[in-house]
Amino acid sequence: MRRAGNFLIPILIALLTIAAWALLNQPDDEPPWPARIQGFSFAPMQADDDPSAHIYPTVEEIDADLALLQGDAYAVRTYTVEDTLAAVPRLAAAHDLNVTLGAWVGPDTEANERELERLHQVLAEGYRNVVRVIVGNEAILRRDVSVATLMDYLDQVRKTTWLPVSTAEPWHVWLKYPKLAEHVDFITIHLLPYWEGVPYDEAVDYAISRYEQVKAAFPDKQVIIGEVGWPSNGRRNRGAEPSLTNQTRFLRRFLAHAESEGYVYYVMEAFDQPWKMKIEGSIGTYWGVYDVERQPKFALTQPVVRIPDWQELAALSVLMAVLLLAFLYRDSATLSSKGKGFLAIVTYAISTAAVWIVYDYTRQYMTPATAAVGILLLLGGVGVIVLVSAEAHEWAESLWLRRWRRAFPRHQLPDDALPLVSVQVPAYNEPPELLIETLDALAALDYPRFEVLVIDNNTKDEAVWRPVEAHCARLGARFRFFHVAPLEGYKAGALNFALRHTHPDAEVVAVIDADYIVSPNWLRDLVPAFADPEVGIVQAPQDYRDADQNAFKAMCMAEYRGFFHIGMVTRNERNAIIQHGTMTMIRRGPLEDGGWSEWCITEDAELGLRVFEAGHKALYIPCTYGRGLMPDTFSDFKKQRYRWAYGAVRILIHHWRELFGLRKTALTAGQRYHFLAGWLPWFADGINLLFNLAALGWTVAMVMFPGEVTPPYITVALVPLVMFGFKMSKSFFLYRRRVTATLRQSLAAGLAGLALSHTISRAMFGALASGRLGFFRTPKLASAPAAVRALLDAREEALFVVALWLGAVLVLLRDDGYMLDVRIWAAVLLVQSIPYLASVVVSLISAAPRLPARLVGPMGTMECERLQPSDDTSAT
């Protein structure tokens, strides 16, 4: 039945996915396109042409374009007579097309005079298919010329031709400057509701009402529509969404009305114009009925479908989801139906989103810049899919396991069967009273056979280490103290020294930090697990005893607890825990095979990986057996996390062949997965730093060059927002369920975790750049910093907050700040600032040691929930 569920759930979700694609692509009946329309706005630019750089199509290309329109329209409207475009009247006559001839008017007076002279020359040739003349196109709207100057140009042309003459402006310009109508023979208006933010389903009625308004204002003048259209792609303008479907719907509805009313109109426009990207942004490119390759963009008579080839996209999204789900289901025997359903929903959602984003992005015309960005986005998209899948997998396994695979067996062994344990305590410059308290707790261990080795390495002040040496002497022969200076290798060097002085009969080595107070039953409860000869490591969690001191430490406690109550528990299910260097026990044999790696700043995790590579097992027991002290300041909190993240990268670099299966070891697929996926969120923080730097660069360009640089593609810009929401939701739900945290503790843990994001990202790149990082001990009992010092401790993060906030404000102050993509980009900048703001807030909290811990609520000890094997199959 369970195996059938592995297939049934994905099939059901697949059917729902296909149904969603089908629902969003229901065909809509729209009025058919007329057999022959009144006219097209005609700018026959090819993909590489650019009139702003005086690069025009050849006469042959223009002729081919006119031939394509022959029989589909009665006329074309041009915009200039410069270069080869002066040949349009002659060429159009051969294709039975009338011409409304245009002359361009811009801010350059001399260029305008040359343009009008060319217009005079073309008109003098007497082409009978030229039926109107339009001098200037939105020249008043662009403020290229004054109204008076434009009226002079119009009067000048009207004196040289018998043809009716006008200028073309949006409807509102005519109403604003009614005297302009006295200098034209007819009114030419532009009806482009997109630019006014009108939704497509209201746009036809809106355009008609504006036409009637202008007609009523000038009853003695003919009103023709010089441009009417809708873009098929580009930026959303308030309620106006550019899309191929909306373009189809608007044009077919408007043309049906225009034909019934006898309007004279020119559809904006015949062909897409990639060159307009420079002057109008992406939206200027996509107004054509034909694309730049001269292919029709939409159906003229058939029902309208949002994505005509949606079936192929739906199939691709299902295929991607199935492949991804097959990987996630490989080892899911203990996952409940709810967990499998959750994974299915997530994988289908991200696969569908990925297919849609790629489809949507590739609908634009590719330039070298957009292609390069697209490649980067594709690589980033793969990373996002991998990251979300890994996070979802941990989410599912944390909440919806039917049973634990590896319930910890509590063996009862007689005293004479218990092995000798060497407890080793490395110390450097530790306060003597702190270390003495640790040793007293070890002296109270309820275990018959153990020794304690204290290795003080490189402490220079005798007043620090001499009291500890004396106290070891008082505790008896089983306590041995070593002061070693100089000693290379930091903590790993001290532990290797201890290993050389370990009692010959010791079979197990236990390591604790100098600030840990252990429970009397620590060894007696956990050492018997080594009765299984395959067990190489037994690990208890790090826990802390000073969370009640202040709010900062209560926050840290909540943040730490997530790893030990969630991450380590799920990793243990596949024998893939991270060994950490306190509250750990290692079988001496595997330890002596390579010792502690002095090249690695996180020698504990590196040793654990080597133990797995050798084929040994590790057990994790989520139960408090010892509690230490947390960092006193945010600066020290950051240093500790920097060291952990830095070490993780160095381990991956050193062991990448083993982790990717290129070098034969005893690592299982599950172990490789957890070591790669477990540190993936930290790499994501590093990538996020690159994203933020790129986002700031893009924002600066948007502010400095508002006419040329638009916000990133809207579907792409939404990804960081969705990722942030997913990550926060996962953290919140897992804390509430698995850590059994209160709402305040969950929020505090999230805030503290976000505060470390920048530190982790710096550690990622620091480790990639260099393998040399000195060991820095996390100080204990340090005095809290002042508020100014706290801000300095988070100065990089504070600068990012200021930069991102300033960027968000400045982009909203652009002229197009009302547009949706600008607002979404501003939201992205604000959301990306949250981790940096969290750093500043947490640093300030650490500078206020009198803030009571009750504001967060200190957490209790972790209960021993897995010490007995159980046949209970209910979720834990």
Quick tags:
single chain; 876 residues; alpha/beta; TIM Barrel; Spore Coat Polysaccharide Biosynthesis Protein SpsA, Chain A; eight-stranded parallel β-sheet; seven-stranded mixed β-sheet
Describe what this molecule looks like in 3D:
It is a single chain. The protein has 876 residues and is α/β, with parallel strands linked by helices. Among the domains are: 2-23 and 308-399; 26-285, TIM Barrel (Alpha-Beta Barrel); 415-639, Spore Coat Polysaccharide Biosynthesis Protein SpsA, Chain A (Alpha-Beta Complex). Helices cover 50% and strands 10% of the residues. Helix 13 links the parallel strand 9 and strand 10 (450-457). It starts with a helix and ends in a 30-residue tail after the last helix. Mean pLDDT is 91; it is low at 869-876. One of its GO terms (cellular component) is plasma membrane. This is Beta-monoglucosyldiacylglycerol synthase. It catalyses: a 1,2-diacyl-sn-glycerol + UDP-alpha-D-glucose = a 1,2-diacyl-3-O-(beta-D-glucopyranosyl)-sn-glycerol + UDP + H(+). GO terms for molecular function: hexosyltransferase activity; hydrolase activity, hydrolyzing O-glycosyl compounds.
